[in-house]
Write the structure tokens for this entry.
Amino acid sequence: MTTFANSPDRFASDRPSILDFGKEDLEKLVVELGEPAYRARQVWKSLYGSLAPSFADMTTLAKSLRGKLEQAYTVSDIETAVHDRSRDASTDKLLFRLRDGELIETVLMRYAADDHRKSRKTVCVSTQAGCALGCTFCATGQQGFRRQLSSGEIVAQVIEMERLARAEDDAEIAAGRRTRGERQGVTNVVFMGMGEPLANYDNTLAAVRVLNDEQGLHIGARHITISTVGLPRQIERLAGEDLQVNLAVSLHAADDRTRAETMPINRRHPIGELLEACRAYVDRTKRRIFFEYVLLRDQNDSTAQAAKLGRLLQGMLCHVNLIPVNPTGAGPYARPQRETSAAFQETLARHGVPSTVRTEKGIDINAGCGQLRARALIG
Ligand code: SAH
Ligand code: SF4
């Protein structure tokens, strides 16, 4: 299912977006408008609790404040250009148009409860329009870098998905399948869409703080995962933040030669340097690191490579996510046979390295990073 949307007039605004203000900045802004500071909390709750789509909808605010805000700011900077749903209805993929016309992708994945975990709804957000790092298997990497997203543009993606998730909760409550107390909304956020989050460090961290805030969306830090191509200095910096977020590092190979074939970043920051930063991160935070390993047939999926990876990660507090590649239009890569993935996983287990083969979602709607934008531009 695909829905195309048209641009509403409100979008033509050139006022700054209120979503770009952190909690303290919002307080300053409200005071500058001549209002008492506590009103900032009302604005915050309207934005991230009630998800008010406009200032006019913030009915808990004094009319005068609504008017002043309306004159100087807008609520959101993004609009839906394309909305796709997978055939099994587990995955929605949205293409958002930003104010300057840039297109970014956001995915909502619905996971049913199983023996180990409760049901959850995970949003995959973009942090940049495009990406400068050029990984050869990645549709975004093949499109080049366009610009950084602001923190508000990152948060706005979650707000849009939260609206969808809440509407679904309400429908289930109306149908008697869920009680009011079981409202769930978005439960997890992964920074695994377009772009490199740690190359947009400040805006990414500002967005995490907004998402995590108790008076707003209140997404637990442990339910937030930042995925990085592996920038050692930024990993060290992240280790020093007082945040309980998960860190996922895209490794994708166990030796420098193989890794450099698909990830140009490896020429600047080879595996040794990267793992040193990862070990320091684990030492300092006492938190497990997740390593992402995209399985590319005949490129990095042999048992010899699994053994090399096992030796590399042996003894480290970590978990490996094995991801059969989502083939992109341009790339030459194919997914490995199921037995190959299983053998890879067994080899890691023999080295004492835990791993999961990631379940696929949304293959039929090109839910892989950067693929929908590529398709939309092709037409
Ligand atoms: N830039 C960050 C986050 C965005 S990419 C990073 O590279 O980690 C999120 C994850 O999707 C990364 O692990 C990336 O390697 C992976 N990925 C990119 N293209 C893919 C594809 N075609 N199939 C499967 N995974 C892919
Ligand atoms: Fe950029 Fe991540 Fe894609 Fe590499 S995998 S090109 S770092 S978005």
The chain has two domains: 18-72, 78-378. The chain has twelve helices and 13 strands. The pocket of iron/sulfur cluster (ligand 2) is lined by residues 131, 133-135, 138, 140-141, 195-196, 229, 369 (CB under 6 Å).
